[in-house]
Every structure is written in structure tokens, then in C-alpha cells.
Write a structure and sequence with these properties.
It is built from nine helices and 20 strands. It is α/β, with parallel strands linked by helices. It comes from Marinomonas foliarum.
């Protein structure tokens, strides 16, 4: 029989071991279609999706409920080792037809962000409320993707800033009401259509207690902006299993702060300043890539602050800088991404100050 002192040592050792195995970050996978006949850029085939889910199961990943995991991260509670969450955008019916059976068989929880206009219109290409109720019984959670999937930062012709904000508020609040009406509750999560938001939209989310996702890649941690969270796309060009494995092994970049100069790009190249936490990191292996342009220029402003700059301006649309750095083990990559919008005058984007 163990003495009381020896018992305390054993318990402490077990607790330390558990802490080492726990995870303080969460990769979130983003899918759209599960179909061989839908647009390839936003699709995985049923065979690819099955391959992804088989890998998660066989490699020992713990698929967790998204909202619960986010709440734990915010509260600095550890997640299971190899925790990952699964999400879908747009409420396509092929999620029910080809994705849900695979998830149900493996007992994996998942979240679908729904835009309700085609659901209410009873489009045959989108989920029905009855199908959602069925999916809820096997780990499905349904969250907000607005009514009509608008570009949330674009005003309609002649629309004032106040009228635009009122319209966006309605896009969000109406879906929250429909989730409660048809499914009994809302998880208070939203995915921004096209990943676009600004300070005003993110403040609206915070006021409502809604956790929201952009379309920048990366890993969620307690340090994340919970009104603009990252996800990893796993469809189209990102559907290869080798690509998925790299992302599943990603860690959040250990940053103290970041300065991107706002949500919009101009006719000048973008740059972003990253300040790292104290620690021993492989800074010489940090690499940043600009969408469509190759490597960013890195200028170290101090031992822990770097300025990453694009070689040339972005074209109209969304552009990003992705940064990665191997950890000391070489088995994981720290990952960071930022997105900018380069708008044209005819698109009606609200101003940076709105």
C-alpha cells in the first residue's frame, strides 16, 4: 500500500502527464459540398470525405463539439489531445446525403452554418428543417450563415451606412430566430459569408454573444479573436490527405500582437507586423507567403518583431499573407494567416471607418 506522501507524488505525476497530453488549441476543418458533381473549388467527393474521416479516426484524433471546445478555450480549459472540429458552410443537401452517413457511423459531432433563404424557399439543393432535426440526434449542430449569404461589407445602391447596418443586423438576427423556432436553440456561432467582416460587424457579434469565423486559415487558441476565428479549408485544392495532415498538426503562431493596418488593402502592397511571445523559436525558419505572389519580404525590427511585406499590390478581391514556422520538435508548424479586401469603387464597400 502506498504511503500518503507517495500517493501524493503519484497523483501529481499523473496530473502532470495529463497536462502534457492536453491541448490548448483547436484546428477547425471547413467543408462545403460533399459531392462529385458540385463545383470542384468548394467540394470534396464522397470518397475524399470518407478518406479524411477515416484518417481522423485511425490516427487517434478526437473530434469535438465546436461550441463546447471554443468555450473551453476561452476559459483556458484544456481540450483532449489531438482535438479537432468539423464544420460545413451553406447547408447543401449533399451534406446530408453523402457526408452525414459517414459522420454518423463514426460518431463524429459536426457543425453546419446555414443560410436560411434557400431552406425557407424549400430549395431541393439545400437541407430541410426536418433533415436538420434528424442530424441533430447524431451530433449535428446548426449555426448562423445569414439569410441570403451577402457580402456583409457591401452597401446596396443609394444605401446609407445606417441602413446597411440595419440590413446586416436583420441578416443575423432573423437566422438566430429561425434556429430557435425550428430547432429549439441556437449555438450562437456564425460564419461570415466570404469570410468578410469589419470592426462594426465584429462588435455586433460580440454584443450578441456570437462567436464568428472568417476565412483565414489557422488554429484557434485562447489568444484568438473570437469574433474573427480561423478555419482550415479542406475542400477543392485543399482536399489532398497530405495537405490535411499538415494542417491537423498545426499550432497557433505564438504572437503577442499583430498590426495589419485594417481590413482593406489599397493600391500599395500590404504589410503586417508580428510580435512574438518570449521563448525559443526557430525564427530563421519563419516563412510568409502572399497569395498569388510567392514569398513575402521579412524585415526583423527587433529580436521578436518582424514586418512581412507583399512584393506588389493585391488585385481586386481578397488577398492574404500566410506565415508558418516549424516548432522545435519539427513535427508541427506554427500557423498564421491574415486576409485583406481590395475593393473597387463599383462594389459599394463601406469605408474603413464605418
Amino acid at each position: 500500500m502506498l504511503s500518503k506522501a507517495r500517493y501524493s507524488v503519484v497523483i501529481a505525476a499523473l496530473s502532470a502527464s495529463t497536462m502534457l497530453q492536453a491541448q490548448d488549441y483547436l484546428p477547425v476543418l471547413q467543408y462545403h459540398h460533399v459531392s462529385a458533381s458540385s463545383p470542384k473549388s468548394t467540394s470534396v467527393t464522397p470518397e475524399q470525405f470518407t478518406e479524411h474521416m477515416d484518417y481522423l479516426k485511425n490516427a487517434g484524433f478526437q473530434v469535438v463539439d465546436l461550441r463546447s471546445a471554443l468555450d473551453d478555450l476561452k476559459a483556458n480549459k484544456a481540450l483532449p489531445e489531438k482535438a479537432v472540429a468539423i464544420s460545413f458552410d451553406d447547408a447543401y443537401r449533399n451534406i446530408y446525403q453523402a457526408g452525414f452517413p459517414v459522420l454518423k457511423e463514426r460518431n463524429f459531432p459536426f457543425t453546419v452554418f446555414i443560410n436560411t433563404e434557400p431552406v425557407e424557399r424549400k430549395s431541393r439543393s439545400f437541407l430541410t428543417w426536418e433533415q436538420m432535426k434528424e442530424m441533430e440526434k447524431s451530433g449535428g449542430v446548426f449555426a448562423n450563415h445569414t439569410i441570403s449569404h451577402p457580402y456583409m461589407l457591401r452597401k446596396e445602391k443609394g444605401e446609407t451606412d445606417d441602413a446597411w447596418m440595419s440590413r446586416m443586423t436583420n441578416e443575423v438576427d432573423t437566422v438566430e430566430g429561425l434556429l430557435v423556432k425550428y430547432l429549439g436553440s441556437s449555438p450562437k456561432m456564425l460564419a461570415y459569408p466570404y469570410g468578410e467582416s469589419n470592426g462594426q460587424i465584429r462588435s455586433m457579434m460580440k454584443e450578441r454573444g456570437i462567436l464568428a469565423f472568417g476565412q483565414q486559415s489557422g488554429v484557434v487558441s485562447a489568444d484568438s479573436d473570437f469574433e474573427n476565428l480561423p478555419r482550415f479549408p479542406a475542400s477543392g485544392a485543399y482536399a489532398k490527405l497530405s495537405t490535411l495532415k499538415t494542417k491537423l498538426n498545426a499550432k497557433p503562431m505564438p504572437l503577442l500582437s499583430e498590426k495589419a493596418g485594417g481590413d482593406y488593402a489599397t493600391d500599395q502592397p500590404v504589410s503586417i507586423s508580428l510580435t512574438f511571445k518570449e521563448g525559443k523559436y526557430r525564427f530563421k525558419d519563419l516563412a510568409c507567403y502572399v497569395s498569388g505572389q510567392g514569398k513575402a519580404t521579412l524585415e526583423w525590427l527587433s529580436e521578436t518583431e518582424v514586418l512581412a511585406s507583399a512584393p506588389k499590390p493585391f488585385g481586386v478581391g481578397r488577398g492574404r499573407i500566410n506565415c508558418t514556422m516549424p516548432d522545435n520538435s519539427g513535427q508541427h508548424y506554427y500557423w498564421y494567416s491574415n486576409v485583406w479586401i481590395r475593393s473597387s469603387a463599383d462594389q459599394g464597400y463601406v469605408s474603413e471607418k464605418s
